[in-house]
Amino acid sequence: MQTTYIETQQISFQDFKNQILEDYKLGRISREMSYLGRREVLTGKAKFGIFGDGKELPQLAMAKVFKNGDFRSGYYRDQTFALAIDALTVGSFFAQLYADTSVEREPASAGRQMNGHFATRSLNEDGSWKDLTAQKNISSDISPTAGQMPRLLGLAQASKVYKSVKFEGSEKFSKEGNEVAFGTIGDASTAEGHFWETLNAACALQVPMIVSIWDDGYGISVPTKNQRAKADIAEMLSGFQRNEGENQGCEIIQVKAWDYPALLDAYARAEQFARMESVPVVVHVIEVTQPQGHSTSGSHERYKNEERLAWESQFDGLVKFREWILNYSIEIEGKEEVIATIEELDAIDEEAKKMVKAGQKIAWESYQKTITDLVHSVLPLVENLKGQNTEIENYIGQFNKLVSKAKKDVFHLVRRSLLATRGTNSAERNQLMQKYNEIFEVEKDNYSSHLYSQSQWKAENIKEIKPIYSDASEDVDGRVVVRNNFDKIFEKYPETLVFGEDAGNIGDVNQGLEGMQEKYGDVRVADTGIREATILGQGIGMAMRGLRPIAEIQYLDYILYCLQGMSDDLATVQYRTKGGQKSPVIIRTRGHRLEGVWHSGSPMAGILNLSKGILVLVPRNLTKAAGFYNTMLQSDDPAVIVECLNGYRLKEKQPDNLGEFTVPVGKIEVTKEGKDVTLVTYGSTWRVVMEAAEELEKLGISAEVIDVQSLIPFDLTNEIAESVKRTNRLVVIDEDVEGGTSAFILQQILEKQKAFRFLDSDPLTIAANDHRPAYASDGDYFSKPSSDDMVERIYSLFNETNPEKYPAIF
Length: 810
Fold this sequence. Notes:
Blueprint: H1 13-42, H2 56-64, E1 71-73, H3 79-84, H4 90-97, E2 137-139, H5 149-162, E3 181-186, H6 193-205, E4 209-214, E5 218-219, E6 222-223, H7 233-236, E7 251-256, H8 260-277, E8 281-286, H9 306-314, H10 317-327, E9 329-332, E10 335-338, H11 342-383, H12 390-401, H13 407-420, H14 427-448, E11 475-477, H15 478-492, E12 496-500, H16 516-520, E13 525-527, H17 532-543, E14 548-552, H18 563-568, H19 573-576, E15 586-591, H20 604-610, E16 615-617, H21 622-632, E17 639-644, E18 651-653, E19 669-672, E20 677-681, H22 685-698, E21 703-707, E22 710-712, H23 719-727, E23 730-733, H24 741-752, E24 764-766, H25 776-783, H26 787-801
Helix pairs in contact: 1-4, 1-10, 1-11, 2-8, 4-11, 5-6, 5-17, 11-13, 11-14, 12-13, 13-14, 15-21, 22-26
């Protein structure tokens, strides 16, 4: 039976006293870290600092109700909380400040994130899941204000799902769904839409979520009254307060940041509501101070008047905590007991300073040793080249004059020396070149690894299983293929669930989930509100807790609502933790062609450019789409799968091995062989390209048609270049705007695959007009590439080279 903090607090006075003094000491350690951290930035040893001073007491109180298996989704000021749950040490705090790339010394991000961005490691070194119920968990922080909120919803909803969903290994992710998800956000950031959308969804879903709002009265320099309709967010949220007997709404608790006993009570009550009743709770922590201002970028004296600054000094949480401790006394068996004397607290203060300084010193020395070792391994090899070029001695002299050396300075020296000695084939230069290649590989891993999965489950490793057809295979609507494949998926993978607008009761707007809710229940096949950002957030959070969510965004155009979360959160999860966390959510959507301005847009270039870190899969029909779902559910990479909006009623032969066949990522398919020109396309446009190719045959032009299938990753075996080598001409056909996805495809083929070597004509791109497509079939015809457009423009390539054989059309 899960217990709460309230239920476990029968302790002796001595234990009570020890807890208070431990909290005081930890608060002082955290404060000293903030003070010293700022000094390290201002003295040039670190680039930037943003700290949690002023928020120590509420975070200590929050940590007391945070149990193994719980998750936090927060922002960059929760260092005291991270210390209190043993997710941070003094050493790792400063290692992050210095951007130390060691996972051992800086496990949150291996130096990839600014300080204050915390994370625990959910994965073993091989990418497999740890037992998340045996540790306290922090989902990796992000900087975009309120960007952490949608993910919080999914982290909380996972607990509710685990109350009814079990599968092999699920015990590593949840103990009967009793975990709570904790969120933290600055008061000014509650003006962001993501905050309201998340809280609204949480109140509707009734998930175990506690959101702490740190209210210091400002958003950097802008006061609260200028941020929202009302200065008091608790008052503004009063309409969200649940009514007795109703299964909607949330609990709202307001408490002062400097009132230690009240904070303990507030978080104890919040935990009771969330853990025992699965009710979302908002803890509005008011009268928060910021002793050092917003960050090292400036001083808060610029925007706070003397009265405010004096108040902050007086109501500093640690000052008030010290006062409370010194004023506390109780009579036990006729004897007055106190918690501590002034001298004892002074001693704790001094010990905290020494601990922080000692931890900082070790962190700095460890970080510097990495650079010193690099210098010692490289400098002698550069010095060996002094006789081969007179400039090298100057380079070495400039390098040695640097007061503080960074890795970039070492690499700059090596690369300039190699440049200066180009054309020289000496043993000394070869030694330096070998060393350069060696150290470059190390730094490539330090700074560029884990954008995608590097585990055995990465999508590229999933083997192709072809669809099997027999005489009994039926011709059915495309939507029936994907529906019946989902049926097999839900049967095969009990950890899989799908949710989205109209996804549940009516089986999605195109009937691709018809009957699935009735068969598998409304937990696994669920309707959502119209709120794309938090549909994605549900997916991210649940995937971080071992579930396999399919987050449905009804139309491709609507994906713009959640593009921020895709770009800033989902796409960077593995990268920003250097393989410490993953979120293999599948984003299901549909789009392209026929339906007008808001239903047939093609924001593919935006997705490609903004979401590196997410696979982008563009099947040409629903059988291919089904195969991609089967592939990705065996992978631990996140992906977006774009189904063809105009394919649901088109006939396809249904494979006999539904739920089993796979479509490999990064693998193109030649759907028509030809010898004169290579036509490259994807998705819904493929059908139109095939029509055009047949027309070109009648004009004496043999076109090879290639369906890309997967934009990220793209043609891993360079098969398109081989096609161009045979045909000597290349046309990329796309329904995105000019210079959009076609530019990406062209860069991949010409630059990466070096296919420019085989061209006898200029490469050609045929794209849509730059405006959104107008409505209906005529709108599609005049807005996006038609078969006529393709035939005429491809024909013109041949007219240019042989006008007699291919006379001009116009």
